[in-house]
Amino acid sequence: MSHDEFPTDRPAVVTCGLPYANGDLHVGHLRGYVGADTLNRALRKVGQQTAYVCGSDMHGTPIAVNAAKEGVSPEEFALSYHEQYEETFPRFNVEFDNYGHTHDETNTETTTSIVRALEDSGYVYEKEIMVGYDPEADQYLPDRYVEGTCPYCGEKARGDECDEGCGRHLEPGEVEDPVSVLTGNPAEYREREHRFFRVSELQTYLQGFIDRLEGTSNARNQPREWIEGELRDWCITRDMDWGIDYPGDEQDDLVLYVWVDAPIEYISSTKQYSERVGADEYDWAEVWRPPEDERSTPDSAGGGGEVVHVIGRDIIQHHTVFWPAMLHAAGYTEPRAVAATGFITIDGKGLSTSRNRAIWAREYLDEGFHPDLLRFYLTTNGGLQQDVDFSWSKFQERVNNELVGTLGNFLYRSLLFAQREYGGTPDVDVSARVEERIEAAVADFRAGVNDYSVRQVGNSAVALARFGNEYIQNQEPWNLTDEDPEQAAQVIRDCVQLAKAVVVLFEPIAPGKAEELWAVFGGDDRPVRDVTLDAALEAPAAEFEAPTEPFEKVEDDRVEELTEKLEARIEEATSDEDDADESETDEGEAPEAGDMEPLLEERISFDEFQELDLRVGRIESAEPIEGADKLLKLTVDIGHEVRQIVAGLRQLHDHEELPGTKVVVVANLEKAELFGTESNGMVLAAGEDADLLTTHGDSEPGTKVR
After folding, report:
1. Which of 59, 217, 329, 581 has the most Cβ atoms closer than 10 angstroms to its Cβ?
2. What is the CB-side half-sphere exposure of residue 662 using CA atoms within 13 A?
3. pTM score, two decimals?
4. Whole-angstrom distance, CA of residue 684 vs CA of residue 698
5. DSSP tag of 357
6. Where is this protein chiefly located (predicted)?
7. Using an 8 Å Cβ cutoff, are 448 and 457 in contact?
């Protein structure tokens, strides 16, 4: 692994958090898989050797529970969803180089090998712990069969995670007031021997790892709470018979915890791809195994290839603490980057599968929309780590304004004019001005790849198309064909080159549409997915047929119809399931309103609100405060003066990226002293992730917020 800019001379692998084989896919899931697919395609565009691998997560308690309800085996239940996912992903142009599952022979063998390596290295030990036991059912209870109270925050929790409160990973026996999910009766805690992974011994390594890690700031900063605090060992076995058996264990009801074998599928799927295409084309061992001489250094980053994980933000801890610790202890390559997506909301409310407040993958396709429209919406509608709201009206707005009005309009009018007037590409050289603009767009694309920003990747193409529209409109070649035919030919030659560059840059976002356009005028026998960024300035086809409009508008009556369908579905599901337990949040879902802090009943007057002096500020500098794990010392320009403000952002934001950020400041707050540092004001932020409040436009520092 390196930290050089892409492309590097080492092979890369891009993965996405495994879909749990327990339900239908929806837009919340697709955001991650489309985002990772886009990033993988973009890496290929910059010339990086890479593979995109994934697989279905087949194990765990929820699958066993739901399989029992349906009267089938867990394997049969999970395989049915696995097959559905295999069929659905290609329909959204999500192109895995390999898609396996955690219950196949390769992953069983790889998992067994890694666990034995952990044992041989002394990182696994046996320990008797208190485990939930249901006297009525006469069986030990795996974590998801136990519910109770979180010992840290007091909220309702399940056996392995405080999913409704602080979000902490919980070890067996930690949940207070345990209740058996099987019978609904109080559970007992009884002693039971389990295996533990010595994560605590890898704290120094993990502290170095998190400093090296690339990706989104939430994935880098959120884990610091655990890595820099008390790091506890991790129980890696569970009391059930569905999963991968602990190697050599004589107890047939003790299996590996699902979070051991699930991420190992990344390695197993890469192996399967390498075995299929041959190691000469792509060598899995070159990616995942560091050189022998580097493996002997206990706290080194190791060698290997460029491992990039795209995940949901609800599984950051697993991918930035447990997973790299396990890889390092077993002698495998650590991740270079972890990019965590935000949640998806529907019409401003939390996505809820049980209340049918979701846009289902198959539903979207059944409505007849092209998959690339949704890919564009999900990848460019905000940064990767930001929450994205989906509504049919917002979908319509993005499609009509940007895909139809900007990108599609430029491509169609330019290529149609070129074909009608010149039969294809005019025989002149591209102007220096347009060549420079294409080079700038290519540079933006490269920067997006190296910043793990699929939004920037997509916006580089849209911005170039916007320039093209302005260029052709200002030059008016239709008026030059008679007055100045040489200039007319120059303008259209420029526009066809711009169009080719747009298609090259837009392929990772909209591969299906890009391929259709490429076939019209690309001038290259290779598919557009296989060309690199150099093709943006290569000559288009000298002759080509008249194009068709690449995108169609979404009409108002269509949006109204789809919105009514969604509302009716939600109303029906809500009335049927008012008493449904929604304690489990599906991947990609935002929390329900009931999971948020309640609104205060006590109101304040308008006059009281007016007493708050809220000002736009700009962070000029940010530095950690010694001895304070969560605090940063900021200097903030609020127009009238530059203030020093202490803010609890250290574990949630990269302080080096904060300068230049616009924020909202409470300017008339009493001064305070924190850790010996004066704080003169307060910076406002939303939620547990400290989402900084900022301005949509260009308000100057000092502007009053009303």
Report:
1. 59
2. 15
3. 0.81
4. 18
5. B
6. cytoplasm
7. yes
> What is the rounded distance in angstroms from the CA atom of residue 635 to the CA atom of residue 620?
5
Q: In sequence order, what are the residues at sequence separation of 6 or more whose Cβ sits closer than 8 angstroms to the Cβ of residue 466? A: 406, 410
Joined tokens for residue 13: 């692998």
* Positions at the binding site for ATP: 353
CB distance 161 to 167 below 8 Å: yes
DSSP characters for 604-652? --HHHHHT--EEEEEEEEEEEPTT-SS-EEEEEE-SS-EEEEEES-TTT
DSSP codes of every residue in 472-511: HHHH-HHHHHHH-HHHHHHHHHHHHHHHHHHHHHHTTT-H
Contact by Cβ (8 Å): 635, 643 = yes
Q: What are the average pLDDT values for consecutive 10-residue runs of the chain, which has 706 residues?
A: 91 97 94 97 98 97 89 96 97 98 97 96 92 84 85 87 79 87 88 93 96 94 88 91 85 84 98 97 90 41 83 94 96 96 88 85 95 97 89 96 96 96 96 98 98 96 97 93 93 98 98 96 92 97 95 96 91 61 44 41 61 89 78 88 88 80 90 82 80 79 86
Q: Which domains does the chain have, with CATH numbers?
A: 1-123+198-390+591-597 (3.40.50.620), 394-537 (1.10.730.10), 606-692 (2.40.50.140)
Annotated binding residues, written as ranges, equal 150, 153, 162, 166, 353
* Residue of 82, 126, 112, 118 whose CA lies nearest to 100: 82
